[in-house]
Amino acid sequence: MSSELTVVVDFGAQYNQLIARRIRESRVYCEIWPPTTPVEQYRARNVRAIVLSGGPASVYAESAPRIDPAVFELGIPVLGICYGMQLMAYELGGDVRRAERGEYGKAMLSVEVPDSPLLRGLDPVTQVWMSHGDSVISPPPGFQVLARTDATPTAVIGDPARRLYGVQFHPEVVHTVQGKQVLENFLFRVCGLRGDWTVDSVIDSAVAAVRRQVGETGRALVALSGGVDSSVAAVLVHRAIGDRLTAIFVDHGLLRAGEAEQVTRTFRDHFHIPLVHVDAADRFLARLRGVTDPEEKRRIVGREFIRVFEEEARRLGEVGFLVQGTIYPDVVESGASGGGAVIKTHHNVGGIPEDLGLELVEPLRLLFKDEVREVGRALGLPDELVGRHPFPGPGLAIRVLGEVTPERLAILRQADAIFLEEIRRAGLYDRIWQAFAVLPDVRSVGVMGDGRTYAYPIVLRAVTSEDGMTADFFRFPYEVLERIMSRIVGEVPHVNRVVYDITTKPPGTIEWE
Ligand SMILES: Nc1ncnc2c1ncn2[C@@H]1O[C@H](COP(=O)(O)OP(=O)(O)OP(=O)(O)O)[C@@H](O)[C@H]1O
Ligand SMILES: O=c1[nH]c(=O)c2[nH+]cn([C@@H]3O[C@H](COP(=O)(O)O)[C@@H](O)[C@H]3O)c2[nH]1
Ligand SMILES: NC(=O)CC[C@H](N)C(=O)O
Ligand SMILES: [Mg+2]
């Protein structure tokens, strides 16, 4: 994909995905590898730069994750971050111990060697973000101290001859004001990279890889939800194999208002991808009748999805490949990021059975969500599709709390549509990561038109997030909330109250079930 492969070695830091994203933002291609990756792999893949991530362990502990010290002798430049720096120092003969003073949060870094290639262009004193209890007490032979903080005299160390560097702070977080400069200094000045990772190069190599995998005559299916990932995967594969790709869109009756029409229209008119639209609402709702347990609902939807899918696959016949919109966080989280070579053997559709006999095609498996969006834009997908909020596979079944009935789905759909319409009208859609309405299974007393009501509340949920793993509630202007409330109560039957969920994740999750 690029001749400038950079590897982030994962020692269990919360931030290793963030390190990889920052590197890619500088247009350098990067993968996350486990510390157990054999040294030969670094040579075989022609790795040009290595970043050792932070991690919760202490290097001197028995069980601490390590790396083959031969990595430091490959002649490839290394940047150790926090634990990564401590590990490098420890392995090369430095002294690492519990510091007298831990350092958590903001600290001021004083640059001592301003002409070090790693620190070029930094302010003499610059704010960094720290999170460590151990410190490099004395650096290994060959290393010099390049910068310090009050609590940590060895905040940055380096051996310019061997191109080995360590920073105790976290350059990848925004609280380290000049962190991007430090990472780019490492990539461009220390390693001599140029940054040739562009969306066009990503698309070209993904298209070529799909052609190689599927061959001249192979046929493929894609389960298309209309969400960002499966849509971008579909368009990419369509570019590679044309109408040997068929998309299957399942309307399970748990979609938002207008969604099925929108998805089918976009794909038929805009992309000319043959699309099978399966209207399966009745069978999903029949299976969900009387079911209130959230996990049971998810299982039922997942299982029914596969049944529908299998039936369609059998009907089409002679299909050898299944396209999935698996993205990099899915891969990393499933522990399959070992050198990019391990193929994820399971899928994210909810359980495609082995005997379906389809080989997986996953053209987005090395991309982050924002990169997937960029690829989608470059492929000509309309903004309203690329910028869509994520929508969960089980759909409204997990937003109608308790039993899912056609009546309660109708209430939720109408309220949800008003909520999103007003968000768009206020110009806030793109500032929010995900927004939706929830219908609880309680009722409360109200007064409307001088009469007593006893009806449902609607819960509004809107969050900001980078990746869905953590989230904060969105700060709406009160006027917008007020308009949403008055429209929902005024227009949606059986609703007499509107509440706004201000729970962060953690402790809450984004969805209610
Ligand atoms: N209604 C549907 N019809 C067909 N396939 C679906 C449907 N809903 C979900 N899927 C499949 O399940 C996968 C996982 O859904 P998921 O919501 O994680 O991804 P997405 O819909 O592609 O993107 P996004 O995260 O932006 O919603 C999808 O990529 C798609 O293959
Ligand atoms: O495709 C999906 N199938 C699911 O079963 C599912 N459950 C949650 N989500 C989405 O994941 C993100 C995090 O959700 P939670 O904070 O509720 O776990 C949010 O974006 C949720 O919408 C799902 N997506
Ligand atoms: N964030 C880290 O990498 C911490 C490293 C090590 N556990 C310390 O406390 O110093
Ligand atoms: Mg989706």
Automatic annotation (TrEMBL):
It comes from Caldinitratiruptor microaerophilus. This is GMP synthase [glutamine-hydrolyzing]. Residues 197-388 form the GMPS ATP-PPase domain. The keyword Hydrolase does not apply. GO terms for molecular function: ATP binding; GMP synthase activity. The active site is at C82, H170, E172. The gene is guaA. InterPro entries: Class_I_gatase-like, GATASE, GMP_synth_C, GMP_synth_GATase, GMP_synthase, GMPS_ATP_PPase_dom, Rossmann-like_a/b/a_fold. Keywords: ATP-binding, Glutamine amidotransferase, GMP biosynthesis, Ligase, Nucleotide-binding, Purine biosynthesis.
